[in-house]
């Protein structure tokens, strides 16, 4: 489903080169939970940003289901991302002026879907993540675990094939973090969505089908 060929990313800062990704070659299966572990500064976020088309690699090719993103224009990649990918962040990145259900509906409205359909879909997902009682509340009143459930519902609303999660348990206590990972596992099993989780947290591996280790820009399967 994801194929990466000879991928490198070199940042140049004050005439010094940083090789954030160093000739990565990998194929990742569809429908799995994949975790990418590695120390701080090893290149995990750079890898996620390149594969999701947010950043451009210096060298190499990336295919998502045979669609090469590395030879497309910025607009084409943005459209592909909006239709095929969801995102979960460490600090949730919810929009504070929108309530819970409005946050969940937003990516579907951005994709020019009908309001009524977005409303139905958002309700269904909020029930699935256990937030049926919180649909109309202000997001600032949510606990960390609840906020992450909202962001998971938001990530899934366009029925993406892939959800990228950057430290999804990083801001949560151990128990809440485990509940979020259980929810991700459940959604992976019931909907077949692939989750690719970038993390420092070794307990994520317990929920993963495949584990990779990033070290100094090189990726190894465990
Ligand atoms: N925009 C940038 N400009 C210059 N160097 C960068 C830039 N972004 C990242 N780097 C460097 O590239 C390397 C990889 O960074 P990256 O953020 O991908 O690591 P990471 O594994 O995600 O780290 P963390 O776990 O701390 O988030 C680091 O040496 C970092 O300093």
TrEMBL record:
GO molecular function: ATP binding; ATP hydrolysis activity; transmembrane transporter activity
PROSITE patterns hit by this protein: ABC_TRANSPORTER_1 (PS00211), ABC_TRANSPORTER_2 (PS50893)
InterPro entries on file: AAA+_ATPase (IPR003593), ABC_transporter-like_ATP-bd (IPR003439), ABC_transporter-like_CS (IPR017871), MacB-like_ATP-bd (IPR017911), P-loop_NTPase (IPR027417)
Domain ABC transporter: 2-222
Keywords from the UniProt entry: ATP-binding, Nucleotide-binding, Transport
GO CC annotations on file: membrane protein complex
Alphabetized Pfam families for the sequence: ABC_tran
Family: Belongs to the ABC transporter superfamily.
Name by which UniProt lists this protein: ABC transporter ATP-binding protein
